[in-house]
Amino acid sequence: MTTNVILVNLAALATIVWIVWYFWLSEKPRSVAVLADGGVQEVYIRVRGGYNPNLIVLSSHRPARLHFTRRETASCSEVVTFPDFDISRRLPVDEDVTIELDEMVPGEYDFACQMGMLRGKLVVTDGAAPPTSEELG
Ligand SMILES: [Cu+2]
């Protein structure tokens, strides 16, 4: 193997490592729902190259309202799906799309774009209200 081939392979490997880290391993800030009047947990999610936040902590004792706003035209993020709840929603650019969820059994529920490239997760805990950031550590 010539040096050039080795360098190309190393560059390819570095790219793969970066992709794995970026999409699956990097810790993005988690979000705790805001409790609105009427006891509904409100969460605002910005969609642009991913979901921000992509880790959302909810209480199992209250319904939730997820507001998605897609700030890009890339077709990848056009649809958001919640496979566990059989929900699939189109996200028109710059529109607030609200997904209403009833009280959920504690657990983890993934959401993603249609091809599963953008991913997020709801973490539903047994707390009476959304946990505070101190409780989360
Ligand atoms: Cu996609």
Major sheet: size, sense and barrel closure? Answer: 6 strands, mixed
Give the percentage of residues in beta strands: 35-45%
**Adjacency order of strands in the biggest sheet:** 1-5-11-10-7-8
Mean pLDDT: 86
Q: Unreliable segments (pLDDT under 50, ≥5 consecutive)? A: none
Radius of gyration: 18 Å
Structural class based on helices, strands and sheet pairing? alpha/beta
Name of the CATH class: Mainly Beta
- What order do the helices and strands follow? HEEEEEEEEEEEH
Number of domains: 1
Helix count equals: 2
Q: Span from first to last CA?
A: 50 Å
Number of strands: 11
Small-molecule binders here are: copper (II) ion
Which shape, going by the Cα principal axes?
elongated
Query: Could you estimate the helical fraction of the residues in percent?
Result: 10-25%
CATH superfamily: Cupredoxins -  blue copper proteins
Return the CATH architecture. Answer: Sandwich
